[in-house]
Amino acid sequence: RKEVEQDPGPFNVPEGATVAFNCTYSNSASQSFFWYRQDCRKEPKLLMSVYSSGNEDGRFTAQLNRASQYISLLIRDSKLSDSATYLCVVNMYTGGFKTIFGAGTRLFVKA
Amino acid sequence: DAGVTQSPTHLIKTRGQHVTLRCSPISGHKSVSWYQQVLGQGPQFIFQYYEKEERGRGNFPDRFSARQFPNYSSELNVNALLLGDSALYLCASSLGTGPGNYGYTFGSGTRLTVV
After folding, report:
1. Does A77 touch chain B (CB under 8 A)?
2. Does position A7 have pLDDT exceeding 60, yes or no?
3. pLDDT along chain B (115 residues), means of 10
4. Residue in A52, A97, A105 to test binding to B, most B beta-carbons within 10 Å
5. Which residue among B44, B54, B99 places its CB closest to the CB of A32?
6. Which letter does DSSP use for residue B114 in this model?
7. A107 at B interface, C-beta within 8 A
């Protein structure tokens, strides 16, 4: 079982739609959580940190559920420019620090 | 301010050779981590360094090694290159390390092709 699992998609949505991605992690030693965005042939860019209390940044809302070990990302009012791969990231300490990326979820927003 | 810079941007090597990749973090960032990304997958964690000490290591063979210098720049070395080492190698820097909520800023990567 992978330490961080994401639905690879692709998700094909029209502009203005709301789309949600989930990510599950298996190691209870996981301590901090993030969503990154990666455009084709570019480096990943930090989208937002994820907290148990939930956090919102404009059209983006992230949520952490420690009991169920999953992380979610909600995108409202999708824009064409939101088309990208969204990577779920978990930091953990297991005798040393590790950062584990999910394989990513592809999103295509169409006019 | 300059972001994370990596060099070279592209590299072609022959099987069995050795390669050194370089990374300069954002000014003030003391943590550098290295990742390998192949097409269609997320980045795979190789190493993390903080204050010149190795703080984490991923599941990569001993052919992979790294170090961090007093100015916080870093090198990733790969010996005895295999075809499967062909990938995008990403460096990321961060203010801190460990379980804090520091995100990483990535460089644009070094694309290594082993032939």
Report:
1. no
2. yes
3. 91 98 94 95 95 93 97 97 98 75 89 98
4. A97
5. B99
6. E
7. no
